[in-house]
Amino acid sequence: MSGDSMEKLLEIENVTKSYAGVQVLKNVNITLSMGEVLCFVGENGAGKSTLIKIIAGDIQASGGVVRYFGKEYENTSPKQIIDMGVSTIYQDIDLVDNLTVSDNVFLGCEMRNKAGFINTKEQEKKTDSLIEKLHLNEIKGSDMLTELSTAQKQCVQIVKALHNNAKILILDEPTASLGDKEKKSLLALVKELTSQGIGIIYISHFIDELFEIGDTFLILKDGEQVTVRRKEDTTPDQIIHDMIGRDASNFYKREYFEIGKRVLKIEHYDNRKTVQDVTLEIKSGEVFGLGGLIGAGRTELARMIYGLDKKKKGHLYIDAKEITPKAPKDALNKGIFMISEDRKGEGLLMARSVKENIMITHNEKHEIINLKKEKEITDKNISAYRVKTVDRDTLISNLSGGNQQKTIIARCTIDDGEVYIFDEPTKGVDIGAKEEIYEHILNLAKKDKFVILISSDMPELLSMSDRIGVMCSGKLVEVVNSQETSEDKLMKKYLGY
Ligand SMILES: Nc1ncnc2c1ncn2[C@@H]1O[C@H](COP(=O)(O)OP(=O)(O)OP(=O)(O)O)[C@@H](O)[C@H]1O
Ligand SMILES: [Mg+2]
Q1: Alpha carbon of 133 to ligand 1 centroid (Å)
Q2: Which ligand sits closest to the CA of 48?
Q3: Strand 419-423 relative to strand 199-203: parallel, antiparallel, unpaired?
């Protein structure tokens, strides 16, 4: 074997994929070499996850060849592909919460002693040595998974993958749920792996991140391979242009308008745990950002306001009128909407159509459903949010991640309300669609609504908010004017300096 072909971990030749006659991938050609970070870039629905699923053996390509380590295989199962050294980490964490880290790592391939019992000590030792090798010193094999942060769980998934002796590691939007600090450590870990010769396939909608770790970019649009670019020969602007077919800035410039006179008062919200005595006032027509690190209590506060989680104390007023919701249903009746960060867990009905997913809250409020109007509203929203779907009756689970997210946002902006809480609304959304979601959010503010925006994406939080409330360990520590602060200053406040 020549040196060149030894280096090639993966060769994808003329791969295509169709679902019921709809072609979602067309003639993709790309290779992955040892130590290389290959990024798949493209808008929501471009075909990135589909290509990954083909490589991982979860679905079969309709045509073309995938060659692993120089060899072609036929009808390989996902398990065989993992055993060959190809590990895939999907965006949603796929671990068992009430087991330890090492139990998770060894799940399905446990080490047993002569009597057939699981050798926990040995498993923990092996896990710890892997953790040490990856410099993940804050985690221990004996830790319960429930004690770990999202970022740490993400790292455990990597430990598990490497324990399977992965030579190719595939990561589908691994940083979508992470804050800045966690993102940095994950990127450092990826770099560390490439220095050990592991080839990485990486998907992310964060262009900066792609430029930080990527070597090669495969740009997909509507399932077609637009081009392949090497980092040293390209720029972020060029990639964005390849991807969406027009120029778009990496930083969004919002329109400012006059702020209204009505006041939303959040008073003494407290659960004696993750949220402690938060009081603040928001004006109508204002986009009020909530910033902080993962675990600062932002989502927990939002859930309490919405009536989803129990609280010890807390009242909500618009001007002098109390509107504290008792439960989400009560919140909806009072015109309070929350777009949840956990779209799979709380938001989407995976076995239902796009139409049902868009219409559900509206239909809950109206006893009589007007079928014609339902179709009209659905189609209007599909086009307003550019949801990529065959039609309104397509199952939501057949949509790409970002298009599912757009559907949830559409759902919450159909009915006229008063208070809109967006928790990480652009998680997994491509750079072009982000701008569209921003427009929809700003339109609500323009209509004199109350808008709360929780975001871990600092440029987004800074460019969208009028003011930002900083939370740290469950407390609201400061409220700042977005125009008068910067990423550096905010980060210091997040960390409590
Ligand atoms: N099981 C399926 N049946 C029908 N169509 C599907 C199925 N799975 C995916 N698709 C379609 O294939 C296209 C590509 O989807 P894919 O999930 O690969 O997009 P993506 O690039 O990963 O997007 P995102 O950035 O939103 O995650 C989409 O239009 C999607 O609706
Ligand atoms: Mg995807």
Answers
A1: 36
A2: 1
A3: unpaired
- For 227, phi then psi, to 5°, come to -170, 170
Residues with C-beta less than 6 Å from any ligand 1 atom: 19, 24, 42, 44-50, 388, 398-403, 430
Rounded Cα gap, residues 229 and 397, in angstroms: 31
Q: Which residues of the chain have pLDDT under 70?
A: 1-6, 248-250, 343-346
**CATH number 3.30.530.20 given to 3-244:** no
Count of other CB atoms within 10 angstroms of residue 491: 16
Cα separation of 392 and 260, whole Å?
37
- Domain 263-494 is of which CATH architecture? 3-Layer(aba) Sandwich (3.40)
Cross-strand partners of 421: 338, 452
- Reading phi first (left if > 0) and then psi (alpha if -120 to 50, else beta), residue 135 is in left
How many A from CA of 402 to the centre of ligand 2? 7
Q: Ligand 2 centre from 19 Cα, in Å? A: 16
Q: In the prediction, which pLDDT does 344 show?
A: 67
Write out the residue limits of the CATH 3.40.50.300 domain(s) in the chain. Answer: 3-244, 263-494
What integer pLDDT is reported at residue 145 of this predicted model?
Answer: 92
Distance in angstroms (rounded) separating the CA atoms of residues 272 and 268: 11
Strand spans (E) along 5-118: 8-19, 22-33, 37-41, 63-68, 71-72, 86-89
Distance CA 245, CA 237 (A): 11
Of 261, 278, 263, 266, which Cα lies nearest the Cα of 318? 263
pTM beyond 0.85:
no
Q: Which residues surround ligand 2, an ion (CB under 5 A)?
A: 49, 400-401
Ligand nearest to the CA of 220: 1
Partners of residue 471 on adjacent β-strands: 476
Name the residue with the closest Cα to ligand 1, atom 12.
24
Using a 10 angstrom Cβ sphere, with 0-12 exposed, 13-18 middle and 19 or more buried, the burial of residue 325 is buried
What distance in angstroms lies between residue 400's CA and the mean position of ligand 1's atoms?
Answer: 4
**What pLDDT was estimated at residue 26?**
95
Number of C-beta neighbours around residue 127 at 10 A: 26
Protein residue with its CA nearest to atom 5 in ligand 1: 398
Question: What is the per-residue DSSP string for 376-439?
Answer: HHHHHHHHHTT---S-TTSBGGGS-HHHHHHHHHHHHTSS--SEEEEESTTTT--HHHHHHHHH
pLDDT of residue 1: 41
- pLDDT averaged over every residue in the chain: 90
In ligand 1, the atom with minimum distance to the C-alpha of 47 is 18
Q: Hey, whose CA ends up nearest to atom 6 of ligand 1?
A: 398
